[in-house]
Amino acid sequence: MWIMCASRILPPKIAPLVVSQTKPKHTGTLFFFHGSGDTSDGIKLWLKEVTGKEFVFPHMKIIYPSAPVRPYTPMLGQLSTVWFDRKQISPFVPEDTKTLEESCSELNKLIETEVENGIPLERIILGGFSMGGAMALHLGYRYQKQVAGVIALSSFLNQQSVVYEGLKHDFGPLPPLFQAAGTADSLVLFDWVATTNKELSALGVQTTFHKFDNLCHELSREEVQLMRKWIEERVPDDR
Question: What keywords sit in the KW lines (predicted)?
């Protein structure tokens, strides 16, 4: 969700919003990254609005980090909460690896802290919407390949992404991927998402892909329900 609202107070750095599981103790964790211009509060509220209730799990903690404030080139250099900068919203330009690596470094620290607190990577899922989904792809297929799964909603990778380059030389097991996109999306074109899915599948990623006719750059109730089921299959309630 691309929000350009001058009244919104943007956080100065990556700041996680934690939603506790409904059981006394959590045995799994979902990291979910918002889209460009949004915040942790924004994506949490959006999931609630789409489903009509709080998006929670009995056994899984959800961590919604907020991206740092940085100049964003597609907004003519205005400050926005974005995980990385880019020349334009398109897969046909080079990635801004400097800002990508800055966010990867900080988010890896959050993931490592969760592991230190007793949650193994095999019970952690990385996901996100739009730019947040791209962030999950970078983390899951470059740094945290032991996670239980990766989710990318309305998200794409650039044609020459370092994710693709790295996977060409990686013959180990990879986390499964849940992807979904709408055919009416005018910001992140459906073909960009489908091409990303095709490329990752060719490089050995087991993918689940859902196409939603007439869906714009947004979440849908059906999409979130399918995502929820997929998460529960990857990280079941074991207590």
Answer: Hydrolase
Q: Which domain holds residue 132?
A: 15-234
Catalytic residue (choose from 36, 40, 130, 154):
130
Residue 42 belongs to a domain: yes
Position of tokens 């996109």?
181
Please identify which of the residues 26, 59, 138, 217 carries the catalytic annotation.
Answer: 217
Residue 217 annotated among the catalytic residues of the structure:
yes
Q: Does residue 185 carry a catalytic annotation?
A: yes
Q: Evaluate whether residue 9 is within a structural domain.
A: no
Q: Each residue of 4-61: pLDDT tens digit?
A: 333 344 444 576 888 888 888 999 999 999 999 999 999 999 999 999 999 999 999 9
User: Which residues, including other chains, have CB under 8 Å from residue 165's CB and lie 6 or more apart?
Assistant: none
Q: Which residues pair with 152 in a beta bridge?
A: 128, 179
Cβ count near 218 (within 10 Å) = 18
Domain count, the chain: 1
Amino acid at site 37: G
213 labelled catalytic = no
Residue 2 and residue 42 in contact, taking contact as beta carbons nearer than 8 Å: no
- For the beta carbon of residue 101, count every other beta carbon within 10 angstroms: 14
**Which tens digit of pLDDT belongs to each residue from 171-219?**
889 999 999 999 999 999 999 999 999 999 999 999 999 999 999 999 9
Q: Both tokens of residue 16?
A: 């996680």
Q: Is residue 2 part of a domain?
A: no
Kindly calculate the radius of gyration of the chain based on its CA atoms and give it in whole angstroms.
Answer: 16
pTM tops 0.90, yes or no: yes
